[in-house]
Amino acid sequence: MTKSFVLKEYIFTFIFWLALAIVLWCNLQITTDKYLAMIQAVIITVSSFTFTHSLTNKFLPKALREKKMKQFLIQVVIVILILGLIFAVIFTYLEVTPKNHLPLSFSDQLPILWQGFYMSLPASFLITGVACGIKFYKEHGRIERDHILLQQAHLENQLKLLQDQINPHVVFNILNHIHILMKTDTQLADFLLMKFSDILRYQLYHCNQAMVPLDKEIEYLQNLVEVEKLRWGNELDVKANWEIGNKKAFIAPLLLVPFIENAFKYVCRLPGHNGYVKISCKEKNNSLYFYVENSYSDRTTYKKKDGTGGIGLQNVKKRLKLQYPDSHDLKIETNHHIFRITLTLTLSEYHEQ
Predict the structure, then answer these.
(1) Helix 34-54 vs helix 69-93: angle between axes, to the nearest 10 degrees?
(2) Reduced to 3 states, what is the DSSP secondary structure of residue 272?
(3) 177-192: b (≥16 Cβ within 10 Å) or e
(4) If 0-12 CB within 10 Å is exposed, 13-18 middle and 19+ buried, where does residue 256 land?
(5) Residues 6+ apart with CB under 8 A from 24
(6) Considering the domain boundaries, does residue 284 fall inside one?
(7) In a domain, 238, yes or no
(8) Same domain assignment for residues 37 and 135
(9) What count of other Cβ atoms lies within 10 Å of the Cβ of residue 263?
């Protein structure tokens, strides 16, 4: 809780009780002397503040934390009764008329006190209810703010975990490609090593941000596709089309990587089958249209038995749900040994640090 927020709360509390004292004084002086009305207003305000302050600042927060609202309601009733009794004493003994008008015997004064107590209960209930209502509203707002902050922290942790599950897999695949090519084609291995350095540079210096420029993300994906094309050579027919015009668009980092990885990982490469991968990525009117298609065989499908997809696809679905809850449309289709993924995404136009 910041100092400015605490100061505002103190100022609001002071203004509230000062306004109550002034209103009481204006009403009481109609039927009694203005100086006596001032004394009555001060005593009522001080006593009301004393009891309601303890009630709202000590008992109410504790009841909300421990979820003991029934116990708190009992405490509220006790405070209302105590204030009603105090008000009855004030209105009975602090009057402008001489005190000898009151019966000398206390037992004879009890009916007058009881009448004053009965008539003071509405005022006591109103003051206590307003004070508790204001404090409850502020406590509820504070709890909501804390809950939002916890949700945000949990969301950031989830996103970081999902991204961390992607990065090692990408790095491992590329290192494995280079290791194989160093035994057969050192020149190609050297070229892939340069591509790998670009990929690592992007992951180290850009992927720690919540959003990255779309053109940088697409350049990263192009490097991955280039690595896969060089790895498989003539064994696969790979076609990729990239159309990105908006340089101000931003996207969550590494969001599209699992689609490309899975396409190459599970594409059909059985003898007698024409293995291919098609990738289309277009940006238009601040929307991204991403399409991946690849051939597959029943022996090499990456769908689980329950039809939900592998870990990579599950991570993408979670990230889309967390980062683009109402601004994406993902379709995953399989038919005639063809696997298709179609994603429509509304992009961000600015980057929040």
Answers:
(1) 160
(2) coil
(3) bbeebeeeeeebbebb
(4) buried
(5) 40, 41, 44, 45
(6) yes
(7) yes
(8) yes
(9) 25
* C-alpha to C-alpha distance for 128 and 122, rounded to whole angstroms: 10
CA-CA distance, 209 to 202, in Å (whole number)?
11
Which domain covers residue 45, as residue numbers? 3-149
Cα 188 from chain centroid (whole Å): 47
**What predicted TM-score, i.e. pTM, was given to this entire model?**
0.55
Q: Given 101, 119, 149, which residue is the final one in a domain?
A: 149
Q: Under DSSP, is residue 316 helix (H, G, I), strand (E, B) or coil? A: helix
Between the alpha carbon of residue 243 and those of residues 87, 222, 280, 330, 349, the distances in Å are 78, 12, 8, 20, 17
> What is the full per-residue pLDDT of the chain (353 aa) written as tens digits?
456 666 777 787 788 888 888 888 887 777 777 788 888 888 888 888 888 888 888 887 788 777 888 888 888 888 888 888 888 888 777 764 444 466 666 666 677 777 778 777 888 888 888 888 877 777 777 777 777 777 777 766 666 665 665 556 667 767 887 888 888 888 888 888 888 788 778 877 777 777 889 998 999 899 888 888 877 778 889 999 999 888 788 998 888 988 998 888 888 877 667 789 999 999 998 899 999 999 887 655 544 444 445 567 887 888 888 888 889 999 999 887 889 999 999 987 655 44
- Tokens at residue 248, please? 């101000």
Q: Do 258 and 315 meet the contact criterion of CB atoms below 8 Å apart?
A: yes
Within-domain flag for 258: yes
215 and 305 part of one domain: yes
Which contacts qualify for 312-318: CB closer than 8 Å, 24 or more apart? 312/166, 312/169, 312/258, 312/261, 312/262, 313/258, 313/259, 313/262, 315/162, 315/165, 315/166, 315/258, 316/255, 316/256, 316/258, 316/259, 318/158, 318/162
Give the helix ranges, DSSP H, for 58-212: 60-66, 69-93, 106-181, 186-205
Domain-embedded: residue 333: yes
Same domain, 17 and 143: yes
